[in-house]
Amino acid sequence: MSTQPTLAFIGAGNMARAIMGGLINNGYPAEKIWATGTNPEKLSDLQQQGLNTTTDNDAAVAAADIVILAVKPQMLKVVAQDMAAAVQKHQPLIVSVAAGILCNSLDSWLGGQLAIVRCMPNTPALVKLGASGLYANAAVTEQQRQQTSEIMQATGIAVWVETEAQLDAVTAVSGSGPAYYFMVMEAMVAAGEKLGLSREVAQQLTIQTAQGAAEMARQSDVGPAELRRRVTSPKGTTEQAIKTFTEQGLPEIIAQGMQACSDRSEALAKELGK
Ligand SMILES: NC(=O)C1=CN([C@@H]2O[C@H](COP(=O)(O)OP(=O)(O)OC[C@H]3O[C@@H](n4cnc5c(N)ncnc54)[C@H](O)[C@@H]3O)[C@@H](O)[C@H]2O)C=CC1
Ligand SMILES: O=C(O)[C@@H]1CCC=N1
Q1: Quick one: which ligand is closest to 265's CA?
Q2: CATH number of the domain within which 99 lies
């Protein structure tokens, strides 16, 4: 990374910890990271790793070039309004990972006229396999875009979207996406057990198969549909599984789930954005 700005994570929960862990694993200096929370005991492991920790969000804002808002969307208004004076004084770049909450709402809660990037990351950031969608408001400079890209790319891939509404779709694909794959894994392990394997063996095989399929899809010059075809021998075993999945409407079920996810992202903005 060309420059290493000081980062302040407001809220050190699951998502912030995945990003911080990914950054640290990638060599980001721990002393350039601040993490805040309401309970000092829950921050002690981070402090032991050399990060700066505090329960005072304003103190973290004062130290930071980039403030990453990582509290629940339902908490964001109160947390933002509480730190507005410190943000206006120090003018850091604001990066929000909160689902749904629009730049305009956040800007007004934080006192206005701020450079804000909305980021929709995902938890595989922890193992450098994260996928983040990014959207910048008009006040964000080219240099700030570059800085944000570099930070999120240290945890995986990062892509910019052109409209804020597209972040609802990013949430449906990659933000929430790990949960879909975990659910498929859960179901495969359970079905493997039912078919006579031990839980341990079913889990080992399921996880390795998920990783193998993902890695093949990544390295291949053909798409997932062709890769699937190559596993599916005519009159063979896979064909029967695929036929059953198709007859039972698996593609439609996935599309419906993702539509519901995107709708919820849009609804959060209306519910919590005022
Ligand atoms: N978990 C995920 O996979 C993803 C989460 N997100 C977004 O990340 C944000 C955080 O989600 P999670 O990490 O899952 O939630 P979480 O509940 O694990 O983390 C939120 C943290 O904020 C802390 N907090 C609450 N009030 C605070 C305050 N006043 N000052 C400082 N910290 C405070 C809580 O103690 C908690 O540790 C949400 O807005 C969510 O939409 C985005 C993408 C993926
Ligand atoms: O479930 C949620 O609301 C968050 C946002 C994307 C993934 N987790």
Answers
A1: 2
A2: 3.40.50.720
- Residue 263 domain flag: yes
86 marked ligand binding residue: no
Same domain for 207 and 103, yes or no, is: no
Q: What is the pLDDT of residues 212-256, one digit of tens each?
A: 999 999 999 999 999 999 999 999 999 999 999 999 999 999 999
Query: What percentage of the chain exceeds 90 in pLDDT?
Result: 98
Domain identity same for 96 and 128: yes
Range of the domain at 103: 7-167
pTM: 0.96
Q: Which residues line ligand 2 (CB under 6 A)?
A: 99, 171, 175-176
- Ligand 2 atom index nearest CA of 178: 7
Count of CB atoms within 10 A of residue 258's CB? 17
* Ligand number, closest to the Cα atom of 15: 1
The answer on 200 and 66 residing in a single domain is no
Tens of pLDDT, residue by residue over 109-162, are 999 999 999 999 999 999 999 999 999 999 999 999 999 999 999 999 999 999
